[in-house]
């Protein structure tokens, strides 16, 4: 079977379209195809998804990190979404003919190249983690960019690759291997940010909420006419997207709020939407041909 891998870097730029396009453009090369770009001005973050043959995708990821380091200055970055570096996270995801161990090896090879050839630093996470306490992205990113200088004074938080000192312009990146993750946002009509934050606490696993495989934050998007429950669904097979959506809708009703819309950022496996309609989820701007992984890759 032909080996196919996805790479889904999140960059800390969601406002400057010229910069975003320049960064995304470097991933197009033989064996690597740009599949999706999703930007959010409130998050001040963009998710760039590309896929193809492992070696080509690894080289494309290197190109992206290099270009992002040239164009993004983290010392000036502000945004609603937690972040630690210009390329905040860069995961490899197996699609076809790939094992998770092979994806972890790609992550290690990329990290060492980024450290040696670009002089940039970071950590390995997920299935590529070198230490148990670095498996979860949220644990690595605790304190965000602003906490990095103090964090690096602690031996347990020395970088896995790259120079040992703080880089104010780049920050740090986190490279790893993981399963499919669905970036799913549910938007609530009105301006009740406290409600969005309360619902996020109720559904996320870290707060002993309903769904053990959901990460969630309440995000301030009030100038758009809604507030947002921004989520990562870490295992859609255990916590299906339809069940998460319905739970949020139920909580909203209790507090006399309405769902404005929902969004899937980036791509999603076909199986995650099996048996549930776009209309039921109130998805906005969703393009199945472009955003379902198998369709985008012609599988």
Automatic annotation (TrEMBL):
Gene (UniProt): ftcD
UniProt subcellular location: Cytoplasm
GO cellular component, one term: cytoplasm
Coiled coil spans: none
EC number, as in UniProt: 2.1.2.5
Enzyme class, first EC level, given as a word: transferase
Formiminotransferase C-terminal subdomain domain boundaries: 180-296
Biological-process GO terms, alphabetical: L-histidine catabolic process to glutamate and formamide; L-histidine catabolic process to glutamate and formate
Descriptive protein name: glutamate formimidoyltransferase
Record domain Formiminotransferase N-terminal subdomain: where: 3-179
Annotated GO MF terms: folic acid binding; glutamate formimidoyltransferase activity
InterPro entries: Formiminotransferase_C, Formiminotransferase_C_sf, Formiminotransferase_cat, Formiminotransferase_N, Formiminotransferase_N_sf, FormiminoTrfase_cat_dom_sf, FTCD
Organism ancestry: Bacteria, Candidatus Portnoyibacteriota
UniProt KW keywords: Cytoplasm, Folate-binding, Histidine metabolism, Transferase
Pathway: Amino-acid degradation; L-histidine degradation into L-glutamate; L-glutamate from N-formimidoyl-L-glutamate (transferase route): step 1/1
